[in-house]
Amino acid sequence: MTVKIWAEEWLETYKRPSVGEGQYKNYLAHINGVIIPAIGSLKLKDVKDIHLQKILNSRAGKSGYDLKKLRGTIKAIFHRAVKSKLIAYSPAEELRLPAAKEGSYRSITDYEREKILALAETHHAGLWIKALLYAGIRPGETRALDWRHIDFKKGLLKLSVQ
């Protein structure tokens, strides 16, 4: 069985029924955007820890939070493969996180807000930029949003807490 087939099966069988839509989309983004392009064609039994470590290392400098989530997804996929007796051991057990962006956050200045809003008027993602700014949500939280989350009558954006 290939990593692609197993990762998709793992997601639909073990995660989709038990997680919210936002978390599901986060798993899907890691699987389709990172894991499958890197090792999707490999057979599960042929994956070594070096393959998985290289995936994490290729994301060095990204958000520490996202790196931890990616490592957790990889570990869960391979852990379940062991439990399902598809492989004898998990190559994901000793993965180390590469250097990541960690740090403090600050509020934007009035000047920055003015420039962001001016850009949002002409940028192709302007509406998304405004949603981030006005609703105070993080980019990752927008993955799960669709029209059913908007109450136009009350002027509300409904976010589910995971």
Looking at the overall shape, the CATH architecture of the largest domain is Orthogonal Bundle
Poorly predicted regions: none
Q: Multimeric state of these chains?
A: single chain
Largest sheet: 2 strands, antiparallel
Number of domains: 2
What is the assigned CATH homologous superfamily of the largest domain?
A: Tyrosine recombinase, N-terminal domain
What is the strand arrangement across the widest sheet?
Answer: 1-2
Q: What's the tally of helices? A: 6
The chain-level structural class is mainly alpha
Query: Helix coverage percent of residues?
Result: 40-55%
Q: What Rg is obtained from the alpha carbons, in whole angstroms?
A: 19 Å
Mean pLDDT: 91
Strand content: under 5%
Overall form: elongated
Q: What separation lies between the terminal Cα atoms?
A: 32 Å
The CATH class of the largest domain: Mainly Alpha
Elements, N to C (H/E)? HHHHHHEE
CATH topology of the largest domain: DNA polymerase, domain 1
Beta-strand segment tally: 2
Structure explained in plain terms:
The chain has 162 residues and is mostly helical. The chain has 2 domains: 3-83, DNA polymerase, domain 1 (Orthogonal Bundle), CATH 1.10.150.130; 110-157, no CATH class. Helix content is 51%, strand content 2%. The protein has 6 helices and 2 strands; from the N terminus they run ααααααββ. A two-stranded antiparallel ribbon has the order 1-2. A hairpin with a 4-residue loop joins strand 1 and strand 2. Helix 1 (3-15) packs antiparallel against helix 2 and helix 5 (110-120) packs antiparallel against helix 6 (126-135).
